[in-house]
Amino acid sequence: MPETAPQQTTAPDPATVYAPTGRTVPTRSRERASYDREQVHSILDAAYVCHLGFVRDGAPVVLPTLFGRVGERLYVHGSTGSRPLRAASGSDEGLAVCLTVTHVDGIVLARSAFHHSLNYRSVVVHGIAHTVTDPEERRTALDAIVDQVVPGRSRDARPADEKELAATAVIRLDLREVSAKIRTGGPNDDDRDLGLPHWAGVVPLVRSHGTPVPAADLDPAIPVPDYLGTR
């Protein structure tokens, strides 16, 4: 028999893919995991809120908070008195954290209770958060956090003054140990349940924005910004 040529394998390009680690490879449904940088960025950029997990006094703490992405860095801000920001600034080694975001895209209804699920997109980031002290980086981070919720808004609002900056702490988390996980499609019913008289399928969930409501004391001559009309 003719010899079979050895199969050529190409290593993932680190410029486009995050390297999997023991903490970013899921133990279940591994086929749903993704390490593609563009996909990870798109999931992060579409989120309003992240959940920041860390250990405080030997116990786990998870806080919902705003965040912003600038390239391969995530920024979280808060009061200088908040627990994670004080912990990150209290050590040169930084603070070990786990940051997550999740989008729910649909409710998956199966014929059996066991196979009910959600369609979702999520990102999990592990790493060491460090306090940002450089003034220029702090302003960039705060602008990114504002623009994370409403792109373009940071250019259309008064920036923080010195007093406000002094009361605000910012931490940075580099995107190094990262994974996304995504579920799409319909229910995965067992063959034995396909004939059951129960409705099965997906209820799509769509995020929408209502008509902007002006502040009661807003000058009526100020129009609604274009960036709100296109969201």
Polypeptide structure, described:
This protein has five helices and nine strands. It is 17% helix and 33% strand. A hairpin with a 2-residue loop joins strand 2 and strand 3 (59-70). By secondary structure, the chain is an alpha+beta fold. It has one domain: Pnp Oxidase, Chain A, CATH 2.30.110. It has helices at residues 37-45, 83-89, 135-149, 162-166, 226-229; strands at residues 33-34, 49-56, 59-70, 73-79, 95-109, 117-131, 168-174, 177-183, 201-204. The chain has a six-stranded antiparallel beta barrel with strand order 2-3-4-7-6-5.
Overview features:
231 residues; alpha+beta; Pnp Oxidase, Chain A; 33% strand
Give the helices and strands, then pairings.
Blueprint lengths: L32 E2 L2 H9 L3 E8 L2 E12 L2 E7 L3 H7 L5 E15 L7 E15 L3 H15 L12 H5 L1 E7 L2 E7 L17 E4 L21 H4 L2
Antiparallel strand pairs: 1-8, 2-3, 2-5, 3-4, 4-7, 5-6, 5-9, 6-7, 6-8
